[in-house]
Design goal:
single chain, alpha/beta, Rossmann fold, Beta-Lactamase, Alpha-Beta Plaits, 4 domains, 6-stranded mixed β-sheet, 5-stranded antiparallel β-sheet, 19 helices, 14% strand, elongated, PucR_C-HTH_dom, PucR family transcriptional regulator, CdaR-like_regulators, PucR_C-HTH_sf
């Protein structure tokens, strides 16, 4: 139904909000949740006509006898009536309409300008620049969906909120007890929380679509500066602009597991690159890489929280990540990297360092370590990058030094030794080697440390003072032990072959007693 014809000008798209039922001239209004057969639909058309809206889009409906009333209302209001098809979701419709408007040269407005559908991080940055503060976009459960990339020092509450990927429970409980959420979800306007102590002033507005609460947008003052004078108006404009983005985010959330499954299959060398490219919206031949992140033993909600933080932190760097959990570690797949390998590598190193720092801050006693995979061209080579990332992570965990982020170039020797040890595990050695004799001696004599002593001696190139310090014994005690070791094991310490075999066997022995690394084919 188009009383004014199909040539009517359209300047924008908005989602109907029952609590703020205003219409902008020449806008196409999406009446989400309004039954086209109801009296409410007729009322929506009348108000749309009064305010000069170009048209109203209802959901799929069998109109039947009610079509006459709807047609009459449309003709009287001079407003076009359209219906969404069953095979097109609301968020897909928003994307198609905005793409059409953009191709026709229509500006999306100051808040939504140049923001791609679903890019909540870009939306948060846009709102932050206009409101003059630090922005978070949250779901109704106070979980952080996106935050602005404010570089200046922020308040402690914002820091905790971003690190934990949600508003701290004590803060949520206090706001709930004070009735703040009831006021927020029941209001159609911006709410103001004045500065108090170390907490700066904050503004917040609810985001709705069809009467359903989708989330909220918060803006906080930064560095003791007041918010922009028009910050409240910016949030009022941002709320309806954010609705399609949050709807899109919700729909894409249902696809997260499908993307994860596709990425896992490709990493294991059994999946389709085309499926992963389609589900993740990545170019199949673009630059990509894998990060291997070890965060220790976690389960349930804590594991989900850490994995969400990984994806959220990557998005703050402008990167879309697919997080694949693997026990005590997660493989983070990054697509659409910089085409220049050197720039992509530097960006990957910066991201890894930031991830290790941020996640370690939330894990307390557990130090998070990150292995950087090689940047490869094409999703088909992701298994190569995964191999490099996990090899580096294995080396970082084996060395247990101060380094928490590395690439294969940084720890090539440690990676090489691990690979050699892995290859030697299947080799059958003679039964009566010197190391085998020392193992048997230690087993028969309680408190004996022959194996440990020989390992320290060889690791320190026969330097008695250095080896004795490592063992915590007097140099003369070490000299006595070495004489006993020579007698009991019959090792020829002057032979390079004997020393090499002993070192290899000692490392194999240590590896067999250490916790096993995760099965990468699982």
């Amino acid at each position: 139904m188009a009383p004014g014809g199909l040539a009517a000008a359209v300047t924008g798209v908005s989602v109907l909000d029952p609590l703020d039922p205003g219409f902008r001239p020449r806008q196409l209004v999406l009446a989400v949740g309004v039954d086209a057969r109801s009296a409410h639909a007729v009322d929506v058309l009348r108000r749309a006509g009064e305010m000069g809206a170009a048209g109203v889009v209802f959901g799929p409906a069998e109109l039947g006898p009610t079509v006459a009333a709807l047609r009459t209302a449309a003709e009287e209001a001079g407003v076009a009536v359209l219906f969404r098809t069953t095979w097109c979701t609301w968020d897909q419709l928003v994307g198609a309409l905005r793409a059409g408007l953009a191709s026709a040269g229509v500006s999306p407005g100051p808040v939504g300008q140049a923001v791609m559908l679903g890019d909540l991080e870009q939306l948060a940055d846009a709102v932050a620049s206009l409101a003059g503060g630090a922005v978070t976009i949250e779901d109704p459960e106070s979980r952080v969906l996106a935050y602005s990339s404010t570089e200046e020092d922020v308040d402690e509450l914002r820091r905790l909120t971003i690190l934990g990927r949600r508003v701290p429970p004590w803060r949520v409980a206090a706001m709930r007890e004070a009735g703040f959420f009831r006021a927020l979800w029941g209001s159609g306007d911006v709410l103001h929380r004045p500065a108090k102590g170390g907490d700066p002033e904050r503004l917040v507005v609810a985001v709705r679509a069809g009467g359903e609460v989708l989330g909220s947008i918060w803006v906080a003052a930064v560095a003791c500066r007041p918010l922009a004078p028009n910050a409240s108006e910016v949030l009022r404009s941002a709320a309806p602009a954010a609705a399609p983005h949050l709807l899109h985010h919700r729909t894409r959330g249902a696809d997260t597991r499908l993307v994860e499954d596709a990425a896992r299959a490709v990493l294991e060398g059994r999946g389709s690159v085309e499926v992963l490219a389609e589900r993740a919206s990545w170019p199949a031949q673009g630059a990509c890489a894998v990060l291997a992140v070890h965060y220790g033993s976690v389960a349930g909600d804590e594991a989900s929280r850490l994995q969400g933080m990984l994806a959220l932190h990557c998005s703050a760097y402008g990167l879309q990540a697919v997080v694949v959990p693997m026990g005590e570690r997660a493989l983070t797949v990054l697509g659409s990297l910089d085409a220049d390998p050197q720039r992509a590598g530097r960006g990957l190193a910066d991201l890894g360092s930031s991830l290790a720092k941020q996640l370690s801050a939330t894990r307390g006693a557990t130090t998070v370590r990150v292995g950087l995979g090689d940047v490869v061209q094409g999703l088909a080579r992701l298994p190569e990058s995964r191999w490099a990332a996990e090899s580096v992570l294995d080396a970082l965990l084996a060395v247990e030094g101060s380094r928490v982020v590395a690439s294969t170039e940084d720890v090539a020797e440690a990676v090489g030794i691990i690979k050699v040890m892995d290859a030697l595990r299947e080799v059958t050695l003679p039964v009566h080697t010197p190391v085998a004799r020392l193992v048997a001696f230690d087993a028969e004599h309680s408190g004996s440390r022959m194996v440990e002593t020989l390992r320290a001696y060889l690791d320190h190139f026969g330097d008695i003072p250095a080896a004795s310090r490592a063992l915590g014994v007097h140099p003369n005690s070490l000299r006595y032990r070495m004489r006993r070791i020579t007698q009991e094991s019959r090792i020829d310490l002057d032979s390079a072959d004997a020393r090499l075999l002993a070192q290899l066997q000692l490392r194999l022995l240590a590896a067999s007693r250490a916790p096993s690394r995760p099965d990468r084919d699982r």
